[in-house]
N-formylglutamate amidohydrolase
Amino acid sequence: MLESLAERAAGGTSGGEIQPDSAIVDNGRGRGEYVLVCEHASNFVPPRFGKLGLSDADLQRHIAWDPGALGVARVMARELDAPLVSCAVSRLVIDCNRDPSVFDAITLKSEGTVIPGNADLSDAERARRIQEVYEPFHAGVAAAVAAKRHAGPAAIIGIHSFNPVYNGVQRPWHVGILFDRDESLSGPMIAALREDASLVVGVNEPYSPGDRVYHTLDRHGQSQGLPSVMIEIRNDLLATPNQQEEWGMKLATILKRIGLPGDDSPK
């Protein structure tokens, strides 16, 4: 089952029904200090939804997933020896990085595109998506965080990608670092990235926690007193496996260098 889920998370749009486990765990026994999460890893829509009434081209767009994010996250997991929990189902079915009680956890329109398969949902259908996708994903994240905390100090990092143009406006950032109340990890990351003069680094750009994008990190990290940070990379910089490898290596190298907040051991 994990093999088929992994294939879906790589961008497949065919296959069977939603599996009992919507969380893919890579390197679950990783001994590093970080837990990595990638909520928008996949554009897979189970067949019972009829592609939610969308075209194959729509399902390749950012509305369905974060292109390139999973590739970066897997490189980081390898380099940091970190567990990675990613979601095997498109955010258009339900967005696992939203509180399931909010209106746009199952969105009716995204970036100007109406999602026909999400219209007029019954309470039972909403509950089914929460039970089949949201809850198993978050159970996977919770288990990874609990295991890491049992072993020692830990931090949680989310990996995402964003469109270079949104609503006709060019976004100048190559990478954005998002954080909420705790800046203990984000501050050193921003400083390290800005050492590369060629990079335009966003601070709580192109999104911020005020946009309700910090749900997973708040639930499993910040609310538990763990350092947390979200990394957003512009997706035109992640179009090839080589680019994803380069960004994964760059970010892993920085995280190795700065270490966890409060860790003064030699790097």
